[in-house]
Amino acid sequence: MKPILTPTLLAAIRKQPNLPRNTWYFITATTLSALNRPDELPEVFKNAILEGSDTTENGDPNRDHQLHISRRLTEALLKASAVGGMPKSINALMSLKSATPEDLRDEAGQGTSIRHKDIYDSAPTQVLERGQAFFEAIYGKISRRVMGQLDRSGAPDLGLLARLAYGYVLSNTDVLTQAETSFVLIASLIPQDAMCNADAKL
After folding, report:
1. Its domain of life (predicted)?
2. What is the pLDDT of residues 106-127, one digit of tens each?
3. CA angle (61, 67, 72) in 5-degree steps
4. Angle formed by the axes of helices 143-151 and 124-139, nearest 10°
5. Torsion over CA of 14, 16, 19 and 25, rounded to 10 degrees?
6. Cβ distance 198 to 146 under 8 Å?
7. What's the rounded Cα separation, in Å, for the pair 138 and 131?
């Protein structure tokens, strides 16, 4: 399959003046995931690591900075699953893992899940209220109407699914801010030509 991400395109994305600093790589990764092109994620990871390669006194790459990039990419791909689908996110995350050195990975069982406290240490109502607040921030004054449409969609659990996704997945800001999460949602929806007909205030 012919690569989408040419060196010229990658350079143009990195130099976009309207993108907030340090967002190009997870926005690009999210878009590639939505296009079902996980094979291109190692190149995004490599360029993000090289571009932001702070060094230690010894001239070695700064591991903390690299770990920060790795976690932001992972979080973006995980959050993209809410609108792009789990299979695409799984493929993207597995591809990213194959390109990520072991010392820059957060493996299961090491207590590294940022959602551990949401599941085990927080009241579900607290997490769901945080999700509702984020949903309202995304949809603004039409948020009640949009949630009402989900609740009356003919599938009674669609509204529940949205509440769980916004509460437990999308509203967590330990790695990506609310604004950065909005970029992830947009970057995942646009290549699918799936912007919500509810005129989302993204």
Report:
1. Eukaryota
2. 766 655 677 888 888 899 999 9
3. 130
4. 120
5. -20
6. yes
7. 11
